[in-house]
Amino acid sequence: MTSVPRGLALLRDPQLNKSTAFTEAEREALGLLGLLPEGIDSEETQIQRVHIQLSQKPNDLEKYIYLSQLQDTDETLFFRVLMSDPAQFLPIVYTPTVGEACLQFGHIMRRPKGLYISIKRKGRVREILRNWPNRDVRFIVVTSGQRILGLGDLGANGMGIPIGKLALYTACAGVPPQFTLPVLMDCGTNNESLLRDPLYLGLRQARPSVADLDEFVDEFITAVHDEFPDCCIQFEDWAGADAVRLLARYRDRTCCFNDDIQGTAAVALAGILGALRITGGKLSAQTFLFLGAGSAAIGIANLMTQAMALEGLAADKARERIWLFDISGLVESIRGDLADFQKPYAHPHSPTKDFAAAIESLKPTAIIGVSTVAKAFNQRVIETMARINRRPIIFPYSNPTSHSECTAEEAYRWSEGRAIFASGSPFPPVTLGNKTYIPGQGNNVYIFPAIGLAVYATRARRVTDEMFIAAARAVADQVTQSELDVGLIYPPQSTILNTELQAAERVAGVIFASKLATVPAPQDIAKFIRSQTYKPEYHPLL
Which of the following CATH numbers is that of domain 7-84: 1.20.1370.30, 1.10.260.40, 3.40.50.720, 1.20.1270.20? Predict the structure, then answer.
């Protein structure tokens, strides 16, 4: 094939490189003789070698670095390894390890991935996009690096997030990796420790005004639309106010979504729907109290409002069942410090800065932590929830693990084993007495890859909240009774590809029904979705 590079150029192409798995004929024809050892590995042998090398790494960050280098050299093998045991590898390539990787990003980076678009290049964004070699980009995950997980402003170090998210698009839902592009919009950083770090790789200046940022983002959105007209943009880890504002501005103008708002909302809704399979009752009969009142909390609250409305409850009545609590206390109607997006959930109530007291008064069936405040769900909070609920729903969703509002062991122990628990970061099984509980992980990985696959397959023009509700219901429906019996309210990550495929099928159904697809509706949506998926297989080069 004339388009296939030869020799070292082929070995340095991660999408075509097979490393030690090149056949004898390929070695002869493509100038590889002498550049590889004589042994020809099977795929199984290659995976075995990766496992052995990973087992010798002293910690998960070193494993992350190793897998990152593997992605740089042999993309097919990288995804084959991840898809061979997702439960083992997802925590390494994404949360919680990606948080540490972002903190150390300038110290551990071997080879740049994706595009870094600096605000100092404003006016030249389209030119920069043209430097990307693949002219058919279907997905961009873009971050400003200002609110990375629960770690705050990490500037250009935040590039680890788009890289990791897009790896999960492929590993969890089979979105072909050649159509994905991670982007860091480098707007500087207000993190003084990074600005003093000689190894920091980003723009060394303070962040811009809101007006300058919005002008820069608008140029980016326009340039993406012009250069990659079939592209869907996923906003990731932007500052809360920016996230809400930018989603509102662009969601009806271009194909985009915000994972921290809509993805988090959908995975929380999936968890609540899973929990209700244990407790019984309708979603519209529950009362929710959030610790945290930022973009993640508002996103969950808004999606829950829509889901309750689908059960027949009026939207204003649905909002009355949702309460927020932030650093200044309960979000109630007489507070004068609220953002516009918080006000729909500011209800009449006496002020309080005591979260446990708010639980006593409001009697929520579920508390949801999106505060990034470690240990905020303390013993008094959990015991209060357990006293007013036979099966209290406890969701400490903040990432990474060090910022979780409580651990699984604390939730189960302080509730005498009655809590229905899910967290943002993974926790090991917990044994109390003669029973073992398996904590669920409310990770957005259950949602955004399925959305991505459905959008990719249908070439959808827009992403809607109805699509996220469909994905959430699909995920909740796949939890088996035996899994519910041990407290698991999300499907196991070991079977995540099948989970995503079924969720993508439901989402695609919504896309076709809403007339948002730009391809003809197939007779069999499930078969159509599976036909679009990437499989990590080497292809003959001759």
Answer: 1.20.1370.30
